[in-house]
Protein: Isopentenyl phosphate kinase
Amino acid sequence: MIVLKLGGSVITDKERAETLDGDALDRAADAVAAALETPSESLADGLVVVHGGGSFGHYNASEHGVSTTAGTHDPTAIHDIHGAMKTLNAFVLSRLLEREVPAVPVHPFSAGHRDEEGELQLPTGQVTTLLEEGFVPVLHGDVIGHAGQGATIVSGDELVVELATSLEADRIGLCSTVPGVLDDDGVIDRIESYEAVEDVLGESEATDVTGGMAAKVQALLALEADASIFGLDGLASFLDGTEPGSTIE
Amino acid sequence: MIVLKLGGSVITDKERAETLDGDALDRAADAVAAALETPSESLADGLVVVHGGGSFGHYNASEHGVSTTAGTHDPTAIHDIHGAMKTLNAFVLSRLLEREVPAVPVHPFSAGHRDEEGELQLPTGQVTTLLEEGFVPVLHGDVIGHAGQGATIVSGDELVVELATSLEADRIGLCSTVPGVLDDDGVIDRIESYEAVEDVLGESEATDVTGGMAAKVQALLALEADASIFGLDGLASFLDGTEPGSTIE
Structure:
């Protein structure tokens, strides 16, 4: 099966709080619907979609000073962030449902938590059951209960890594605002180690935990399955079984 | 800790589709808020609230022919039922938040599933974490992924039994439309076996799986902790540590 991330920056207008990029989301939903109509081999066991927060989650999280490590005990902060993410999730679901993709929501705040060490604990029996019953579970970056911290942020990227591992995904796709990992010559086709791309990505910084390219590449290198990073133009071909953009082995 | 069920028939107008009983919900929220301000001993380790569907969930479930055993693979049916329950959940949360109860939502569809035998699988790490961080998790009857069936209904009563068991609840309260289990002399104070009340309750019927009194009593008798069934008038005193209505040992 495939775990597909739709970047928050792809499907929202990151410059304006809580603003959808409806055209981009339509294009993404078109590609998903077309791929499911004539599924490639790796889609035969299903598709899990994860989307980021873009201008929905990030705006609310930063307003309340909540991050992946700085928590909150304020229920209003939780409702603001979680509510904004559910609104974006409802947009994503409705665009998919319009195209007869059997998409259903799985909200991480309801499903998982972080332990005292900050490790994400995400049981996936519900996702597996929904997949086996033919649905397309749609998760999203969210706020999440965190032992000792109240609640912190869980990013879409972190969920992708977690889901790909527990569900033993065959392929992972990150649909991003860029066509792949770039150096001076353009898109780097294949990446086998972080050292090989360190010069173009720089050191992974703490500020980039919920979305930066360096953190993405490092996390994806640690996974069993190959992962591709590509732009919206590459989504259809990725779902059809090719490897557009940069492939992280 | 306490697991408290607010009956769907208590907080909604069961005669009219998707209609809240705002006055009843206000009274319930008042009682919860007052109890948390000066918590009794059994509230010291927290409170989990579960609410039923009343005229929200039941209306949509029956329209789509979905029950605890008859499933659906239609995403529209899932969205209708789940959406109605989320709407009711948002009402419950907002009445609690208005009274400074740190209530947060946990949607069963996102959290659990039924296996091939129809057994409910509900991981509770997220609920425990939220409780320990001082929040009041609010769950609800819902639609839920079901291996081999698509998705079926999980009732609030079933969630209460599951949560009380996994969280090792000290006390269980079912706030109902009646003041307890009734015989000709009024409310039966204590119930120690099903045989003792079989005459007044009758045989548990298949049609009563999501809410009938006979099924409630049978499920509660199987639990370690004592459970009380009472009306809205008894809620404040239950939360303060007394045993109003009928207590099932």
User: Anything to note?
Assistant: The first strand of chain A starts at residue 2 and ends at 6.
